[in-house]
Amino acid sequence: MFEKIINEATNAVTAAVKGVGDILGAITGTVKDQVVGVLKGTGDIAGAGIEAISSIASGAVRGAGTVGSSITDTAASTMSGIVKGVAEVGGDTFGAIFHGAEGLVKGVADTGGDIGSAAVAAVEGAIKAAGDVGADSAEAVKSSVGGALKAATSIGGDAVSTVREALLGAAALPRDAIESAVKGSDDKDSSGK
Predict the structure, then answer these.
(1) CB of 105 within 8 A of CB of 58?
(2) What parts of the chain have a pLDDT lower than 70?
(3) 72, 74, 73, 89: which is closest to 35 by C-alpha?
(4) Are 10 and 59 in contact (CB under 8 A)?
(5) CA angle, 114 then 115 then 116, to 5°
(6) pLDDT, tens digit, for every residue of 48-93?
(7) Could you tell me which residues come within 8 angstroms of residue 73 by beta carbon, excluding any fewer than 6 positions away?
(8) CB atoms within 10 A of CB 47
(9) Would the pTM count as exceeding 0.90?
(10) What is the structure's pLDDT at 141?
C-alpha cells in the first residue's frame, strides 16, 4: 500500500510541476490533495492514514527531484501541503508533521541527496506550516525532529549523527527547542520506546 502511495505522489507532483511557473505552489497544492485523499480514503485518520503521510512526503521529494527543485524548497512546500491537508480533514497535525519529516528525510536519502539539509528544511517547514494553521510551533519542532531522527535511524550508518549535527548547527532553527527535541528523541531511543 505504501509503495503505491509513494508512486502516486511521485507521479502527481511530477505532473503538477511540469510547465508551471509556481513549482513550489504546485507541490504544496498537490501534496495537500494527496493527504486529503489518503486520509479520507482510509477512514482511519489516526492510524494508517497518518502513517501514509510519510509515503506522500517521500513521493513528493522524488517527483520534485525530476524537475530539479531544491531539497529545501521541496521540503518546506511538502510540509506545508501536509499540514494544510490534515487541517482540512481534522486530523492529527503533529502526527502528520512527524511522519512528514520522516518521509522527507527518507525520500532524500533514496534519491542520494543531503539528509542533513532535508532534516533542517523539514523542521523549518513544520514551524512555518504550524504557524499558518495556528498550531503550537514548539510541538511542531518536537514532532519534526522526532520524525527526521526516526528516518535517520532507519537509514543507518552515520545518518543519525548527520541529521543531529545539521539540526543543532542550523542558525535558522530555535536552538533551545532543537536541543530539547533531540534530547527527547535520544531519551526515547535509549529507553526502547
Answers:
(1) no
(2) 1, 19, 42-49, 188-193
(3) 89
(4) yes
(5) 90
(6) 667 789 888 988 888 887 777 788 888 889 999 999 999 998 888 9
(7) 23, 24, 121
(8) 12
(9) no
(10) 95
Cβ–Cβ < 8 Å for 130, 83: yes
Q: Do 151 and 101 contact (CB within 8 A), yes or no?
A: yes
**Residues of 78-98 as b/e, b for ≥16 C-beta within 10 angstroms?**
bbbbbbbbbbeeebbbbbbbb
- Other Cβ atoms closer than 10 A to 104: 34
Of how many residues is the chain composed? 193
- Residue 165, C-alpha cell as written in the block: 549535527
Helix (H, G, I), strand (E, B), or coil: what is residue 69?
A: coil
Torsion of CA 140, 162, 107, 1, to 10 degrees: -70
